[in-house]
Amino acid sequence: MIKIENITKVYEMGQTQVLALGGISCHINQGEMVSIMGASGSGKSTMMNILGCLDRPTSGQYFLDGVEVSNLTDDELAEIRNKKIGFIFQNFNLLARTSALSNVELPLIYGGGGNRRQKALKALESVGLANRASHKPNELSGGEQQRVATARALINEPSIILADEPTGNLDSKTSYETVQLFKKLNETGITIVLITHEADIAAYTQRTIRIRDGRIEA
Prior knowledge:
There is one protein chain. By secondary structure, this protein is of the alpha/beta class. It has helices at residues 44-51, 74-84, 100-111, 116-126, 142-154, 172-187, 199-202, and strands at residues 2-13, 16-28, 33-37, 59-64, 67-68, 85-89, 160-164, 191-196, 207-212, 215-216. The chain has a single domain (29-59, 81-216), classed as P-loop containing nucleotide triphosphate hydrolases (Rossmann fold, 3-Layer(aba) Sandwich), CATH 3.40.50. The protein is built from seven helices and ten strands. Strand 9 (207-212) and strand 10 (215-216) form a beta hairpin. The chain is globular and about 50 Å long.
């Protein structure tokens, strides 16, 4: 599903070049649940941005489902993000004044498609929140907000979910429930890549890729 070969990423900071990724290669098979671990500044978020087609590598090749995406146009990358990849972020990124249902509908509004309400309700039902569809984020617990974010990531039926520190703002009980939800989604065939710095969260995945100073350590 995912294959990267000798990927580098260099950021220009004025007259200084900062090497975020120093030539990493790895693969993730379809249907796997994999964690990417590393300390702050290790390069794991940069790697996720590249895997999610949110950023381009400076050099190297990235194959997604057999297609090299490294040099695609912005429109082509946007199409891949909309159709193949679901994103879940640490801060949930929900619209504060909008209901859970409307938050879940957002990708369909941007990407087009009918039956938005029915699809959003189905996605909320899949994460156990159909009864909270009309609630706004400030009326939901942290775990419930994460479930709304997960439902939003599922709305376009992606083949891959990228979750960046999804338990970072949750207590231990809610973190466990969140990871169990990811495991259930993985059992349906969705490939899940979990970015985390927490070893106990990574332990729930099938395989861990450890990054240190922009390189794969193990």
